[in-house]
Amino acid sequence: MKTIQAATYPVHFYDEAYQKLTDFVTSKNYSSIFLLVDDNTLDCCYPRFMQNFATNNSMEVIQIDAGEEFKNLETCVGVWNAMTELGADRKSLLITLGGGVITDLGGFVASTFKRGIDFINIPTTLLSMVDASVGGKTGIDLGVLKNQIGLFANPEMVIVDPEYLHTLSAREIRSGTAEIIKYGLTFDIKLFNEINNNKKLDIKDLIYESVKIKNNVVLEDPTEKNIRKVLNFGHTIGHAIESYFLDSSEKESLTHGEAIAIGMVCESYLSNVILNMPMEHVTFVKNAILEIYGKIDFTSDDYSSIMEYLKHDKKNVNGEVNFVLLNDYENFQLDCRATPNEIIDSLNYYLA
């Protein structure tokens, strides 16, 4: 599969990507190499990685706990301390092997260690393959508030090896599918239709198209001043719900994709209210998403807390909540506003 060229780095695919990785690392003559993994990827993905990556350099493995709740400054400090104790310097390389938490946190760790060292992303979940590993966003959460601390920093390369998807549960595959649905609704409705019409679809077929869409958007707007905001469709309400469930002792935490799926239903409803997106299309989106994800259990009693988390969305300006909404499929509008009552109506629509 043809390499996708991002602004300053390539995205390589499948087995031949490892030869590209080996050649690159050999040419750069790094002083040391560090591999960042979590509990899951150490067990499930590290063996395949080691079978395919050949280097004469010694490589140190740094392991962190798995889960969104560990995507925080405390974990970063632990990784920085480990790298320091193991002799990392400005000519070191950090390779991230994992999902969105590993790629986001690992990129942030590398970009700030000694004012920046090289890093390479090897995403192992569908979510990180089609979203987190590409585009140069790095960051961590502040408490349960998503991605509040971070910076834009590009990796040296990204390796997309769909064989790692075999290590995932069906729930994790569904989580990553939400981001592909987002690309379908905003840029290429064929992606959404393929998912909706073919329940036995090999999702690997859609990874390449998804990465291509995201890369084209990022090339046009690398630091999210304009069109890159479209990649937040479903994420404004979705992130608020994800944070609320993460922080609640009475709720089981949602995957990122489950929360974004709710957000896409709600923000499709707002698209009808504010931009007159055809209601039959809103209904189609809701029904398709509910068929894939089921209905998440919350009630109107939870609304006030969800609305409170919305106030902290990093896209807000002057206290105003910003949405990406749809005039229709493949036709979006940036920087839209909705009243609190309209947002509550959208939650009611999801639950109805």
TrEMBL record:
Record's keyword terms, sorted: Cobalt, Lyase, Metal-binding, NAD, Nucleotide-binding, Zinc
A GO term, aspect molecular function: 3-dehydroquinate synthase activity
Start and end residues of each 3-dehydroquinate synthase C-terminal domain: 176-316
InterPro entries the record matches: Dehydroquinate_synthase, DHQ_synth_AroB, DHQ_synth_fam, DHQS/DOIS_N, DHQS_C
Superkingdom of source: Bacteria
Obligatory cofactor(s): NAD(+); Co(2+)
PANTHER family in UniProt: 3-DEHYDROQUINATE SYNTHASE
Function: Catalyzes the conversion of 3-deoxy-D-arabino-heptulosonate 7-phosphate (DAHP) to dehydroquinate (DHQ).
Name of the protein this chain belongs to: 3-dehydroquinate synthase
Organism: Tenacibaculum geojense
Gene name, Swiss-Prot/TrEMBL: aroB
